[in-house]
Specification:
Blueprint (H helix, E strand, L loop, with lengths): L1 H26 L5 H36 L4 H30 L3 H39 L1
Helix pairs in contact: 1-2, 1-4, 2-3, 3-4
Amino acid sequence: MVLVIQLLFAANLMGLSWFIQSVHYPLFRQVPIEVFEKYTHLHQRKTSCVVAPLMLGEMLTGIWLLIIGPISLTLIILSILLLFNWVLTIGLAVPEHKKLSQKKSNQAINRLIAVHWLRTCSWSVRSLLLAYLLLLQLERVNEVF
């Protein structure tokens, strides 16, 4: 069951990430400088309300998976990618958002997009690996019946 919940969190983050990557962040360039500061504050507040619970749920279920095991190479890769997303978010994305909340900068927008590509790819790989693990579990259940 925890694997299904983990997959739901990861898949939601993957979908959201692809939307942000392909639509939302590129549109930052189109926001007029006069309203950019207000826009970025609203963006951060509203986006955090959606992303934070998903990331926290993903982290908690990821820890839960490690606790209940069994430990496998796939689970280790999933855990590394999960940690990678948190490091990218806290260490690189948040500082770029802070810069953008003070002043519009195409350079900061471009860095944010570059960093977010890494997160988008990571969430995509996580979702695929979790789906693969779930399929393996379903095959084992089908063998029993």
